[in-house]
Amino acid sequence: MGSADHQQEQLLLQQLQVAMPVSFESVVLPSSPHKHVGLVVVDEVNGFCTVGAGNLAPRQPDEQVAQMVKETVQMAKAFSSRGWPILALLDTHEEHKPEPPYPPHCIRGTGEENLIPELKWLESDPNALLLGKDCIDGFIGGIQDDGSNTIVDWIKENQIHQVLVVGICTDVCVLDFVTSLLSARNHGILDPLKEVLVYSEGCSTYDLPTHVAVTIDGAIAHPQKVMHYVGLYFAKARGARIVDKVSL
């Protein structure tokens, strides 16, 4: 990021934090062996997280993405060791089915749609369910041909009361999934779900500075730290709890 862009981003972030404050919480998850807490990992796939892996992957190592991966691995291992349910949403697209306004990404068979190496062990973990999705919103992506919804079934079958959400992008796929989950809960189709928690340190988004965006036809600037904060703000506004510390 250019120095001017960086200064503008920092100023904007500070202004947002004053004008639109978000209260962060610490949460202690239950230590008993029951499975009433579920972890959802949103789109931590190569196409979004691995440097140079695709059109929407980072172009260079990214500190926020690295932090997200570190925290997600820690949470996933803790859940797995307790036998608690884990759901991994994997952005997966067919070559003939575009997802405007985005360029081709996470096409099936390219490897972009696969979990990042640090989480690949989830593929064989008995506590984990992997779900490919072909749209931004993983709740919508969970709708099956017979009209059932994999997300609804996962919550009901595991009797999940709390969902802890991590992943990428905070203001895109994470936010859309969280808001749909909250709406479905309020609509009465997600019993016994009571709370949705977003773990801020386990989320990240992409960075597209202004000086780069203006060189790409149709692109708009997307300052990473600002948009990460905006995603958390809107998740909070819709009813999610935003946590920055998780103890197990």
How would you explain this protein's 3D organization?
With 248 residues, the protein is α/β, with parallel strands linked by helices. 36% of the residues lie in helices and 19% in strands. The chain is built from eight helices and seven strands, in the order H-E-E-H-H-E-E-H-H-E-H-E-H-H-E. It has helices at residues 3-19, 46-49, 63-82, 138-141, 150-157, 170-187, 210-213, 224-237; strands at 25-28, 37-42, 86-91, 128-133, 162-168, 195-204, 241-247. It has a seven-stranded parallel beta sheet, sandwiched between helices. Helix 6 links the parallel strand 5 and strand 6. Helix 6 packs parallel to helix 8. The longest helix has 20 residues, at 63-82. The chain is globular and about 50 Å long. It starts with a helix and ends with a strand. The mean pLDDT is 95. Belongs to the isochorismatase family. Residues 39-213 form the Isochorismatase-like domain. This is Isochorismatase-like domain-containing protein.
